[in-house]
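User:
Hi there, any thoughts?
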Amino acid sequence: MTYTIAEPCVDVMDQACVAVCPVDCIHFEQGVDRTLYIDPNECIDCGACEPECPVNAIYPEESVPAGWAQYTPLNALWFTDKAAARAMLETLKPA
């Protein structure tokens, strides 16, 4: 299991979750990305980030609401193909 950052983070990007992550697995490129991403290979499933999110965008993988299910593969994709992840986000939530 890993955690996923879903749609409520898009264009908000509050970084309170980044500050509490003990393994620094939450990433983004300043000025480029519209959301934060959790690296599924680095996440240790501690849950520290979830209560810190002011917009309730972070969920355990198995608890992501059905309407936001595509954000789980989106989070993973960003770490292998940033351009494809950004294109996928534009499809899910156009700017």
In short: The radius of gyration is 12 Å. The mean pLDDT is 97. Residues 3-92 form a domain with the Alpha-Beta Plaits fold (CATH 3.30.70.20).
